[in-house]
Automatic annotation (TrEMBL):
One of its GO terms (cellular component) is cytosol. PROSITE patterns: AAA. It comes from Rotaria magnacalcarata. This is Uncharacterized protein. One of its GO terms (molecular function) is ATP hydrolysis activity. Keywords: ATP-binding, Nucleotide-binding.
Length: 226
């Protein structure tokens, strides 16, 4: 950890991104002395770069409930952002991004696919696209195997054969097959637990509290006879 932060300071401006933050900063009561050492080093380095304006630290986790409380204090991360599951418009964008390098048939309706995948995460949607792509590739390979099993006299000569292997197109039936094995990685109970945790954490940090300064009269508005 010391080496990572040292390199970040030396190459500033820099963004340090810790994915799956819960894997290294679990609650100290649930981990051993090694994890405590990691947490202490991380907290120390976070304090050290606090005054630097060109080094940014970002952490991501889907298990905020097991992160050590010392990392959730206001003087650690300046902002805590709860990212909900993607809505329908976002799901369409995720599907398009996952398929941007794949040939997709014109009859594939990504809007319909986004509509029926409510509650799916970005990883779930990507898994569906990868599954449809694998099905298309497997189908293409099976078609190529059949001519190879035919007698030699019926096989086309080398100059008749297509020298380029066609890229398999992902059709609607491929997505239908992939959807048979599709699953949500985040249940409704999980979503509710995340929402409650985010609300509780924001309240503990003072987010959403209402504060108003008392009304004060300007000197020109005073009527005390002065």
């Amino acid at each position: 950890i010391d080496n990572i932060f040292y390199k970040a300071c030396q190459t500033a401006p820099c963004i340090l991104f810790f994915d799956e933050l819960d894997a290294i900063v679990k609650s100290r009561g649930d981990s051993g002395t090694t994890a405590e050492c990691v947490i202490n080093h991380l907290v120390r380095e976070m304090k050290r770069i606090r005054g630097k304006k060109n080094v940014f630290l970002i952490g991501a986790t889907n298990r905020p409930d097991i992160i050590d409380s010392s990392l959730l204090r206001p003087d650690r991360f300046s902002k805590l952002i709860y990212v909900p599951l993607p809505d329908e418009k976002s799901r369409v964008s995720i599907l398009k991004s996952a398929l941007r390098k794949s040939p997709v048939a014109r009859d594939v309706d990504l809007q319909l696919l986004a509509n029926v995948t409510k509650g799916f995460s970005g990883a779930d949607l990507t898994e569906i696209c990868q599954g449809a792509c694998e099905i298309a590739i497997r189908e293409s390979i099976e078609k190529d195997i059949v001519p190879e099993r035919e007698p030699q006299c019926h096989r086309p000569t080398a100059w008749h054969a297509d020298e380029r292997d066609p890229v398999p197109e992902i059709r609607r039936d491929h997505f239908e097959e992939a959807m048979r094995f599709a699953r949500r990685s985040c249940s409704d109970n999980d979503i509710r637990r995340y929402e409650i945790f985010a609300q509780t954490l924001h309240q503990s940090r003072g987010f959403g509290s209402q504060f108003r300064c008392p009304n004060q009269q300007l000197p020109s508005e005073r009527t005390d006879g002065m």
